[in-house]
C-alpha cells in the first residue's frame, strides 16, 4: 500500500507539474503576440511626499489584458517574459510609453519605471533610455528607474559602468523592494541610488505594537539619510501604517492608503490645477 501511495503521489506531482509547464508554454506563446496585439497598458500609482501630501511622481506598472484569461498579474508574466527573452522588448515598450504619456501631463511630476535585471545587463540599455527621453522630450531629471537588489546577484564587470552611464544621462535611480533580496549593504556604498523603496513586507502591519518592522524601517531611514538618499514606504494601506511611516521619517509613501494604480486619464485628473494635496482614504472595507 505504501508503494501504491508513493506512486500515487508521484503521479499527482507529475501531472501538476506537467500542467504548469504547459500553462507556461501557452502563456509564453501568447506573450510573444501581446505587444503587437496591443494588449499591454500602463497604470500609474501616486508617490506622495510625507511633508505636504503632494504627488511627487507616479510609478508606472505594466498591465496585460489577456483576451481570454482576462487580467494577468505582472508578478506572473514578468518572470515568464524574462525567461523567454521577451523582457527587453516589453520593457522598452513600457519605458517609451511611460515617457511619452507623462511628458504630456499638466505638472512636472516624476515617473518611475521598473527595469528588469536582464535589461540592466544589456550594454545597449543607456541608448534605449536616451532614445525614450529624446523622442518624448521628457526632462531626464523626471525619469527614475527602479532596479531591484537582484541586479547585484550576477554582478558583471560592467555593472559599475552601467550605473555611471545611466547617471551621466541625468536620470534618477531607485532601489526597489529593499530588504527582501540579496541585501548586502556593500552596493549601497558604491551604487548611486537617489531613493530606497522600503519593501511592503516591512510596511504592512508595522504599526502593530511589538512588531519588529518599525525597528527595521527606522534603521533603513537613518541609513538612507546618512547616504543622502530619499526613502519611500511601499504598500501602506492603513492610517496607522501611514502615521508610523511619517513618525519614522520616510520622505515618501506609495500605497493604497492614498491610491491604487490608476489608468492614465485618472492619474492626470489628480494633477489638475487647483487640486490640493492627496487625502489618505485607505482601503474600503
Ligand atoms: P513593484 O515594482 O514592487 O511594484 C509595487 C507593487 O505593489 C505593484 O504591484 C503595486 O500595485 C502593489 N502595491 C502598491 N501599493 C500597494 C498596497 O497598498 N497594497 C498592496 N497589496 N499592493 C500594493 P503590481 O502592479 O502587481 O506589480 C508587481 C510587480 O511586477 C512589481 O513590483 C514589479 O516588480 C513588476 N512589474 C510591474 N510592471 C513592470 C514593468 O514595467 N517592468 C518590469 N520589469 N517589472 C514590472
Ligand atoms: Mg517598482
Ligand atoms: Mg517594490
Ligand atoms: Mg516587487
Automatic annotation (TrEMBL):
All residue ranges annotated as the EAL domain in the record: 24-275
Name the UniProt record assigns to this protein: EAL domain-containing protein
Organism: Parasphingorhabdus halotolerans
Part of the intact protein present: 505 to 789 of 889
